[in-house]
Amino acid sequence: MRKLIIAIDGPSGAGKGTVARAVASELGYRHVDSGAMYRAIGWKALREGVALDDEAAVAALADASLIVVSNARVLIDSVDVTREIRTPEIDRAAAAVARLPRVRAILVAVQRDLGAGGEIVMEGRDIGTVVFPQADVKIYLDAAPEERARRRAQDPSHSGGPAAVSEVKTLLTERDRSDTTRAVSPLYAAADAIVVDTTRKPVQDVVKEVLEIVKGSGLGARG
Ligand code: C5P
């Protein structure tokens, strides 16, 4: 089996995390949640009182940080922030720092290093378009906004926020707008990505579909 790079992009609540984790586990690959890195930087900037739109200051902070994303845990400078970064406040902070080109350049370099050897499933917003335009498999997961909001509202790893689906939907739509309209690396499906709509699909069906795409890509064979 070749050591593949599998890119999974899409908006929040499309199922990226669950699907990427399951696909990686099935293939014996590493799973990297690139969004967690933007979240960790947003968390640290808030904690240190750095303005989220101060590009030079947030970039300096990112440059001086050690982020480890592995085994479903997220550490920044050895502080475990796995739970703290899943709040509406950090949703906004992550999307804000993700707009800054110098911050993106720093995190993209880290992501490329992590994926250099292949055998990786990386999820995010720009993995198939910017981080690994040469990825072996590119998947773009999408779902209707109502359903994405419902999933997010029910996600036990996302805490501290309003549970009402309508409020979650408003925040999610705001973040979608920020992610799709920003000047650098906006969210969109790469021309060679396979779009999978996960609306009303059980997660195990989506995982199966993605694994079929990986096998069908003809890259699953040894050699
Ligand atoms: O995927 P998640 O919702 O955890 O990502 C948090 C935020 O980080 C997104 O709203 C987006 O602004 C940013 N992000 C990004 N590029 C990535 C992953 C996440 O800009 N590859």
Q: Secondary-structure blueprint of this entry?
A:
Blueprint: E1 5-9, H1 16-27, E2 30-33, H2 34-47, H3 55-63, E3 67-70, E4 73-76, E5 79-80, H4 88-97, H5 101-115, E6 120-124, H6 127-131, E7 137-142, H7 145-154, H8 165-181, E8 194-197, H9 203-219
Parallel strand pairs: 1-6, 1-7, 2-6, 7-8
Antiparallel strand pairs: 3-4, 4-5
Helix pairs in contact: 1-9, 2-4, 3-5, 4-8, 7-8
The chain binds cytidine-5'-monophosphate (C5P).
Cytidine-5'-monophosphate binds near residues 95, 126 and 179.
Report on this model:
The structure is a single chain. By secondary structure, the protein is of the alpha/beta class. It has one domain (5-213): P-loop containing nucleotide triphosphate hydrolases (Rossmann fold, 3-Layer(aba) Sandwich). It has 9 helices and 8 strands. The protein has helices spanning 16-27, 34-47, 55-63, 88-97, 101-115, 127-131, 145-154, 165-181, 203-219; strands at residues 5-9, 30-33, 67-70, 73-76, 79-80, 120-124, 137-142, 194-197. The strands form 2 sheets. Strands 2-6-1-7-8 form a 5-stranded parallel beta sheet, with helices on both faces. Cytidine-5'-monophosphate binds at residues 12, 34-35, 38-39, 94-95, 98, 124-127, 175, 179.
